[in-house]
Design brief:
This is Avidin. InterPro entries: Avidin, Avidin-like_sf, Avidin/str, Avidin/Streptavidin-rel. Keywords: Biotin, Disulfide bond, Glycoprotein, Secreted, Signal. It is found in: Secreted. The relative contact order is 0.15. Strand 2 and strand 3 form a beta hairpin. The protein is 16% helix and 38% strand. The chain has one domain: Lipocalin. The longest helix has 21 residues. It has 135 residues and is an alpha+beta fold. It has a seven-stranded antiparallel beta sheet, with no helix packed on it. It contains one helix and seven strands.
């Protein structure tokens, strides 16, 4: 029995990195960024769309920051292990919307990381002010 369990443990150890590499990023769940913002994403539906909420830790406003809804989509759900995605957040405490695009990466140990880029558009009084409306 000792030999069998030793071989089983060795086989599990040898298959571990491959199993982690074969796993796919799963966007569903809770995420936290380096600035302290929190995001919760629902499970993907068959079309690859998802919803959730975003609580930012950083905002240029005097208003109270509150949790805001988000809607998004993942490219080719289930096809590849490190998918691209995009989502928008409709801020509930300001007259602005942010669009995020990114990709989910998984390291050898199975740790998932989202790398994103964002654009925030705030409402301005006229087209003349449009140059300062996007960050």
């Amino acid at each position: 029995m000792g030999t069998l369990s030793c071989c089983l443990l060795l086989a599990m150890a040898l298959l571990g990195p491959r199993a982690a590499a074969a796993r796919k990023c799963d966007l569903q769940g809770q995420w936290r960024n380096e600035m302290g913002s929190n995001m919760t994403l629902s499970a993907l539906d068959a079309a690859g769309t998802f919803s959730g909420s975003y609580h930012t830790a950083v905002a240029a406003t005097n208003k109270q920051i509150v949790v805001s809804p988000l809607q998004g989509a993942q490219q080719h759900p289930g096809a590849k292990g490190q998918p691209t995605f995009g989502f928008t957040v409709q801020w509930q405490f300001s007259d602005s919307t942010t669009a995020f695009v990114g990709q989910c990466f998984m390291d050898r140990r199975g740790k998932e990381t989202l790398e994103t880029t964002w654009l925030l558009r705030e409402e301005v009084p006229s087209r003349r002010d449009t140059w300062k409306a996007t960050r």
